[in-house]
Write a structure and sequence with these properties.
single chain, 658 residues, alpha+beta, Beta-Lactamase, 5 domains, five-stranded antiparallel beta sheet, 12 strands
Amino acid sequence: MLRQKRISSLDLILALVLGGLYLTSLHSYVLFHSLAEVLRIAVAAAIFMLIWNVRQSLDNSYLKFVSIAYVFICSLDIVHTFSQKEMGIFLAGETNLTVQLWTGARYLESASLLVASFFLGRKLKLGFVLAGYSVTSLLLLGTIFYWRVFPTCFIEGAGLSPFKKISNGLIVLVLVASITRLVKKRDQFDPTVLRLLVTSIAFTILSELCLSFHVDVYGVPFLLGHLFKIISFYYLYKTIIETGLAKPLAVLFRNLKLSEDGLSRAHNELEIRVHQRTDELAKANELLLAEINERRRIEEALRKSETKYRTVAENTYDWEWWRDPEGNFIYVSPSCKKITHYEREEFVADPDLLLKIIHPDDRLPFLSHQTEVEGEMAAGEIEFRILRPDGSVRWLAHACQPVFDEHGRVLGRRGSNRDITERKLAEDSLRESAKQLRHLSDQILTAQETERRRISRELHDELGGALAVLKLRTSFIEKNLEEGQTELKEECRLDLKYIDEIIENARRLSRDLSPSILEDIGLTSALRWLIDNFINNYKIKVASGIVNVDHLFPKESHIMIYRIFQEALTNIGKHAQAAHVAVKVQLEESRVCFFMEDDGRGFDVKSPGAREVPERGLGLATMEERARMLGGSLDIRSEAGKGTRVALCVPIHKKEGL
């Protein structure tokens, strides 16, 4: 009965307050609005103080979140109250400012009620919530007062703006969603508390709907909207304060009560579980005995297996070892003696012996390898030299990897060292042979160019001179023949024509063997002449873009570049069956690249390289060798049916003063 009277008294007080507020609205809208806001702020403050003081023992995150949220919501409502133009506090003095602050507060309120439902059953960090609401409130006020980017909400003489009407609809939808979430989580609340919360949000929705239809702040919809807002706060007050004081276990300690009920049920089940556990332990003991016997059998098998593996490890030619996590040798195979001439007991006694016998030039790379693989717990490989006691040097190929047990714990690192001295000596011998072959190749190409120049001079000077004399003598004979000797005169004319062809062929052979055009007009012009000659001989269209590069290379490099161009164009003309060729010279920062591309039948680039040298064809091999002598690179890309692309890149060697 006492509780019923208390509820009736609160309802009567609410009715009187609402009636009084209505009467004050008839006398003064400012007074009505201020009293309504003060009532809501007082309720929010009371809710926050109660929840804050019992926050350590209250495990309902929803109520904590809502209490903090309403403090900041009502703070915005205070600014909203002071913004009325009748107050004269803000210079703006516009109804739009008041409605903007109200709209921002309602957005914050609806979002808070929805977000709070997601914290049910979760631990809430109040400091983060307070900081979050502080930042959000300041940003919201900044958009209205400082940046003035908050959309217009009220238009004088026209009423609510389209944004405000849309906002009211959105806010109502969010509030409906928050009710839906509460109903889905109803097992987290006492039925009375849930009913009061839903009622509070329902009146908030009615308030928003009324405020969606008012045209001015003195209309009935606006009055009803504020009254419904007070009723919603009243039910929120009843939810947390009145119901919380009357039934604290239902509101503040509901989860604790559920835990106590669960503990009672667990106590009733404990004896049953004890009996069950006793039976399980008896069976477990039987299984344990069986497992012990099985483990003994496995250990015996492991001992036999270990004997086999140890036999293999100790008779392998490689030097096998195992270090613990501290770097001490757990195992060293006997083959270390064969490789290093040190006993394995010496490595066990001195863990740093391996580092000490590494060649001084290889010690730092080995330490870097060791730091890297141990830091990353990874496998690794390296090659290094060691010094035997007699001073002789041996090359070792080292490989190591971490060792883990079945639980992932590090047991150290195992490694294997193999003597590769003979292989290294063979590699050095091969490198020396390759070096000698390259030197010989350079000499051959140089001698070839020298011999070509000699033959070119002989063709030009001796054969050319002899042919010129022969032409003069034949011409003399023709002129001194009698008029009746027509057949001899015709033969002389044919001989003169034939001699001219021989002279022209000799000149062409001379130019091909040693192009004097390089000395006469330079590399760039010689390349252009070579392209023109290619077009005349093979009737293939060529698109060229050649810039002057003569000053970028020494004279001795010109013939090499010319020969590579000559060989590439000859290959295209004889084998490519191309219709178009593109030639381009590209200047880069430190090199010059010559590109030549055709649309011919192409070929398999890998095939010549895979063949034996005699079958490969001297053309491509000679081009590659000349590119190497220039200090550059030659890249040939081709595919059957898709043409060929040749790229020669040569480093720039500018002369002094250029």
